[in-house]
């Protein structure tokens, strides 16, 4: 899976997934 | 809202009932940031509209390595703008629907 999970020491969970190309602004 | 280069959107439908809501944040324009963001991933997290502040979450993202510490204010502002919109909708739209 391409999901990554990061848990901050305060307990908050961050789930990172790829941004679809269509959602990225053209550089 | 001001274009900060950091986009924040709802990650779930808001029914106006829960104080905690899922949000998704990603960098649209890295040139607007002072430091280099970790990658192009979308970061999903839950935010409690009653108990938490955008500054707290932005600080935790910096401490977790997603953003440079010099970008904590721009990340916090991006979250604050979206949270303000969610609260505006809850105050004005949901009472009318219900």
What can be said about the biggest beta sheet of chain A? 2 strands, antiparallel
Radius of gyration of chain A: 13 Å
Net shape of chain B: elongated
Number of helices of chain A: 0
DSSP strand content of chain A: 35-45%
The percentage helix of chain B is: 25-40%
Kindly report the average pLDDT value of chain A: 80
Largest sheet of chain B: 3 strands, antiparallel
User: How widely separated are the two ends of chain B?
Assistant: 27 Å
Task: Tell me about this structure.
The complex is a heterodimer of chains A (27) and B (98). Chain A is mostly beta strands and 27 residues long. Chain A is built from no helices and 2 strands. In chain A, strands 1-2 form a two-stranded antiparallel ribbon. The termini of chain A are far apart. The model of chain A has no long low-confidence stretch (mean pLDDT 80). Chain B has 98 residues and is of the alpha+beta class. Chain B is 36% helix and 21% strand. In chain B, α1 runs antiparallel to α2 (72-92). The two termini of chain B are 27 Å apart. The model of chain B has no long low-confidence stretch (mean pLDDT 92). β2 of chain A pairs antiparallel with β3 of chain B.
